[in-house]
Design goal:
- By secondary structure, the protein is of the alpha/beta class.
- 41% of the residues lie in helices and 15% in strands.
- It is globular, with a radius of gyration of 27 Å.
- The relative contact order is 0.16.
Length: 498
């Protein structure tokens, strides 16, 4: 018997939006890139960036001096292709922070641009950065907007034209396969080794679950990368191929989950992968090309909530499988580990902000009451206290002074809170004091989310994951926001006498 494992550190937990009983899951499907295999983000994205930049240089663009800035973009941002901006929106689609190109927008300019605009991802104007693969694209686009504004790029060209040009060159970079060939040749440089991931999958397999690999990567890339990441950590004589009941490459997600497509077998002849049309049952020992989720469900004899799919792409992995197939979903957010650690390290300051904000709310409440009484005296209506008007005016001045001092104390702490994890964008899951647009997507489409597949190891294949009680503004919390009642102590127990 394997010894009992200690609980995971907080940043490696499984976080549950909708209750999930793993004992009821009969099959677990996995994406590969940034899911089963996690890359060194900066190394991968820097090389992807350099390939795009070098293609532009070959086309005569004066951009050879541009360099990748890993802080310029994070997952979950939105590119406004109409205005050349990078945006962070809250869960309602309101823009909370913006860069024009690579430069922060002033508050007034941002307000003028977006005060009446709600981000709707169904509009082609908005490009949502779904995965870590998007960071190089967003970085070079922002930098090119700066060059376009300075009149240094070929033209005439608008921001939409510029984005389409970047996208075309990014797609061409991936189609050429040069970057992937570089990674296959030197995987240690790009891949983070995680021996716990194969063990977690072995646990699931031996618990009776079917394991599926469904990746958009081609077989020529999938096979060597899975061999590198898995085989050295499996029992002697076992390979990654023996872990999976079905392997599907070049799946064309999200279309794999929504449309029907011909299924091919991948046949290796003299070291070359060839395709052969397939009909009939699927074999454990044969990798497949394309196909469809409906065909896979028929083969497995399973459907809907009997299948859990685990991936890193918000739309291609979890959104579509949830909406179309009603599979259970798990989102991999590797950045979550840094986020949880950052929140924990900021906890003392966060508590201090909360205490000062409660004090501020009490002072603001008293200030409002004093102003209201002065108004009633001026217009001769309503109940009033027996305090002298001069005393009220003096108290109002004192309150303003105290509030200004509080703002000066809270301001630097609030700015530090807004810059946790990233100086431009702050936390992945927050937009100001609200949930970010990414957090809303996670909440809506991912039954569970976690930082890496190997976190399933701590939970075991038999875990019953229960979602926490949902919170609403009227629920007790600390700090809890402005109450809808006047309260001298902020406790929610009604007014207090002085």
């Amino acid at each position: 018997m394997r010894p009992h494992l200690p609980g995971p550190p907080p940043e490696r937990g499984l976080f549950c939006n909708r209750t999930l009983n793993m004992r009821a899951i009969k099959a677990v499907g996995y994406d590969m890139d940034y899911t089963l295999i996690h890359y060194r983000v900066e190394a991968w994205e820097r090389r992807a960036y350099e390939y795009i930049r070098d293609r532009l240089v070959e086309q005569g663009w004066p951009v050879s001096d541009l360099t990748f800035d890993p802080m310029l973009a994070i997952r979950g941002l939105i590119i406004d292709t109409a205005k050349g901006n990078l945006l962070k929106a809250n869960r309602f689609g309101f823009v909370k922070k913006a860069l024009h190109g690579s430069k922060p927008m002033e508050f007034d300019a941002q307000r003028e641009a977006y005060a009446r605009t709600i981000v709707d991802l169904a509009d082609r104007r908005w490009v949502f950065l779904n995965t870590l693969f998007s960071l190089s694209e967003a970085c070079i686009y922002a930098q090119l907007v700066d060059r376009l504004d300075a009149g240094q790029l070929p033209g005439p060209m608008g921001y939409v034209d510029l984005y389409e040009h970047v996208r075309k060159n990014l797609d061409a970079t991936h189609m050429q396969g040069r970057l992937k060939a570089e990674i296959i040749a030197d995987p240690e440089r790009y891949v983070i080794d995680d021996p716990e991931t194969p063990l977690a999958l072995l646990d699931q397999k031996n618990a009776g679950k079917k394991l599926l690999l469904i990746t958009n990567s081609e077989w020529a890339y999938t096979e060597p990368m899975m061999h590198f990441a898995f085989d050295k950590h499996l029992p002697d004589g076992m390979t990654w191929r023996q872990l999976f009941d079905v392997v599907i490459v070049s799946a064309r997600k999200p279309e794999f989950f929504t449309t029907r497509s011909t299924l091919f077998e991948v046949v290796e002849v003299n070291g070359e992968a060839l395709l052969r049309p397939h009909s009939g049952p699927l074999s454990r020992n044969t990798p497949y090309f394309a196909g469809s989720a409906l065909e896979l469900e028929r083969h497995l004899g399973l459907s809907g909530d009997e299948i859990l799919y685990v991936g890193d792409h918000m739309f291609g992995d979890v959104h579509v499988t949830k909406n179309v197939l009603r599979w259970r979903t798990a989102l991999i957010l590797r950045e979550l580990e840094d986020e949880v650690r950052a929140i924990a390290s900021f906890r003392a300051t966060e508590l201090r902000i909360g205490e000062r904000m409660l004090h501020k709310e009490r002072l603001e409440d008293e200030s409002c009451q004093v102003r209201l009484e002065l108004q009633r005296r001026r217009y001769h209506y309503g109940p009033r206290t027996d305090k002298a008007e001069g005393e009220l005016v003096t108290r109002l001045t004192e309150l303003r002074t105290e509030l200004e001092a509080l703002d000066a104390e809270i301001g630097p702490m609030a700015r530090a809170a807004s810059e946790m994890s990233n100086p431009h964008w702050g936390l992945l899951t927050r937009a100001g004091n609200d949930k970010s647009h990414l957090a809303r997507q996670v909440e809506r489409y991912a039954d569970i989310y976690t930082s890496r597949v190997s976190n399933f190891l701590f939970a075991t294949p038999f875990v019953y994951l229960r979602s926490p009680r949902g919170s609403l503004p009227h629920d007790p919390s600390f700090p809890g926001g402005t109450p809808v009642f006047a309260s001298g102590d902020g406790s929610g127990n009604g007014p207090t006498s002085e």
